[in-house]
Design brief:
Elements (H helix, E strand, L loop, with lengths): L27 H17 L3 E2 L5 E3 H8 L4 H6 L1 E4 L6 E4 L4 H10 L8 E10 L11 E10 L5 H17 L8 E6 L3 H17 L6 H9 L13 H5 L10 H16 L4 E3 L11 E8 L8 E7 L3 H4 L7 E7 H10 L11 E5 L5 H13 L4 E3 L6 H10 L4 E5 L1 H5 L2 E6 L8 E4 L3 H5 L8 H8 L1
Parallel strand pairs: 1-5, 7-8, 12-13, 12-14
Antiparallel strand pairs: 2-4, 3-4, 5-6, 6-11, 7-9, 9-10, 10-11, 14-15, 15-16
Helix pairs in contact: 1-5, 5-9
Bound molecules: adenosine-5'-triphosphate (ATP) and magnesium ion.
The site of adenosine-5'-triphosphate has 18 residues, from β6, β10, β11 and α11.
Length: about 450
């Protein structure tokens, strides 16, 4: 046998349920349910879908995210296109690409836009639970809106997504909120920070020493436990915020307060990218160890201009789909099963054409019917029917088909009598087998 080829390290297959997996990753049914729920929630808030390429010019991320960020410094999958020498990068995040597209198509010409996208991102990190080299994000951006109303709406939208998914805010996921102010306020704070860290230089680790003059704010984001005390006592940006920034922050808070959403103001909260200002937030959980941030975002009023567009404010967030689904698995939240409604048991090869013609009619009427392909004993077919989670078995035997009928058995109600249904009327009784049957159709059958 030939040597099998394996997937790239840190890049995972999302497998259908029932396929055994080595990694404790969510299956594709959970994934589908998440996507359906997301689409429904986003539509209620008027967000529209945008798809951008997975590969972008490297310069986009260097200019967009900032040169002294973890992503640009060490996590990007960058390569030279061997055909023409172009410097390209697999997108490590979605915002820069979305902003590029908006500028390229002059998309804000007719006014602001609410946009979302979903798909793979790539970062060269050490793979572990909740951290992969290819991972997936839901990314949501409100472009051309100055807020603070939209900032709050976005946060409330995430809460409503949690609720649809069965997650309880405050218990399973908590909101942390901060304001990063404006560039001049950050400069004043930065100067104070550099002074503070210089005075305590002996306590800085190598990473922090390197960042002291290039990006001291990122020192606050350290995961080094030995530096926590130092970081906690550092001057906070909140003390340097002017009237406008404070008013913006308080306006976001008022909406959240009125909506009954609890949050913690975390003055230490900074985000991994340089482009943020004013509102920043993270939804965190205690259940996933150090991979505890499931969703993070904030305002980035300078980015569109920085990437060559007409100045326009914007706010957005990214949600890590693997992390979120791991959390849902960990909490064993009830997830609706994606079972077929009916399972077709076909006991004789000669019944196959008639059976399959009928199944086509049922499916055209909207019914999800799984056919037992490949034959086998009645017993083994019923075993499969049961395992499929289907409510009904449709039994196509030689005798039934010869009479122009199919037998219907309720798999979930043992005492329900088996019934015969006419093959010719399948379009009519299809509706009865489905919970979403229209009352009129159901009446035909119950008569
Ligand atoms: P972290 O601090 O955990 O590295 P981050 O600040 O780099 O996260 P963002 O760039 O804000 O993450 O991305 C938004 C979300 O995407 C994160 O909150 C997380 O849920 C998810 N995410 C980021 N990197 C990864 C990864 N390597 N694997 C899986 N999910 C990720
Ligand atoms: Mg990271």
């Amino acid at each position: 046998m030939a040597e099998p080829i394996r997937a790239v390290k840190g890049m995972n297959d999302i497998l259908p349920p029932g396929v055994p997996r080595t990694e404790k990753l969510p299956d594709s049914a959970l994934w589908q349910w998440f996507e359906t729920t997301v689409r429904s929630v986003l539509a209620r808030y008027g967000y529209q879908n945008l798809l951008t390429p997975i590969v972008e010019p490297t310069a986009l991320f260097v200019r967009g995210l900032g040169e002294v960020t973890d992503i640009v410094e060490k996590e990007m999958y960058s390569f030279v296109d061997s055909m023409n020498g172009d410097k390209l990068t697999l997108r490590p995040e979605a915002t820069a690409g979305i902003v590029r597209a908006m500028i390229e198509h002059n998309a804000l010409y007719n006014g602001p836009l609410r946009i979302w996208t979903m798909g793979p991102m790539f970062r060269h990190e050490r793979p572990q639970k909740g951290r992969y080299r290819q991972f997936h994000q839901l990314d949501v951006e409100a472009l051309g809106y100055a807020g603070p109303d939209v900032d709050a709406e976005m946060i409330l939208m995430v809460r409503s997504l949690w609720r649809e998914l069965g997650l309880v805010e405050g218990k399973h996921v908590r909101l942390e909120l901060n304001s990063l102010g404006q560039p001049d306020e950050r400069r004043a704070h930065r100067d104070a920070l550099v002074r503070y860290f210089e005075q305590n230089a002996t306590q800085l680790d190598a990473d922090a020493q390197r960042r002291l003059h290039s990006n001291p704010l990122r020192i606050l984001d350290t995961k080094n436990p030995a530096m926590q005390g130092l970081v906690e006592a550092a001057p906070t940006l909140m003390d340097f915020l002017g009237e406008g920034s404070l008013a913006h922050f308080n306006a976001v808070r008022s909406v959240l307060d009125m909506a009954g959403l609890e949050y913690r103001v975390n003055t230490r909260l900074v985000r991994g990218m340089d482009y943020y200002n004013l509102t920043v937030f993270e939804w965190v959980t205690d259940q996933l160890g150090s991979q505890g941030t499931v969703c993070g975002g904030g305002r980035y009023d300078g980015l569109i201009e920085q990437l060559g567009g007409k100045p326009a404010p914007a706010v957005g967030f990214g949600l890590g789909i693997e992390r979120l689904l791991l959390l849902i698995q960990e909490l064993a939240l009830p997830v609706p099963a994606a079972s077929p409604r009916a399972y077709a048991v076909i006991t004789s090869p000669s019944a196959v054409p008639q059976a399959m013609a009928t199944l086509e009619t049922l499916r055209a009427a909207g019914l999800a019917v799984l056919m037992h392909a490949g034959g086998g004993s009645m017993k083994s077919q019923f075993k499969r029917a049961d395992a499929s989670g289907a409510r009904y078995a449709l039994i196509f035997g030689d005798d039934e088909v010869a009479r122009g009928e199919v037998a219907l058995k309720d798999l979930r109600q043992a005492d329900a009598p088996q019934r015969s249904l006419p093959l010719a009327g399948a379009a009519l009784w299809a509706a009865e087998l489905d919970e979403r049957a229209t009352p009129a159709a159901a009446r035909v059958l119950n008569a």
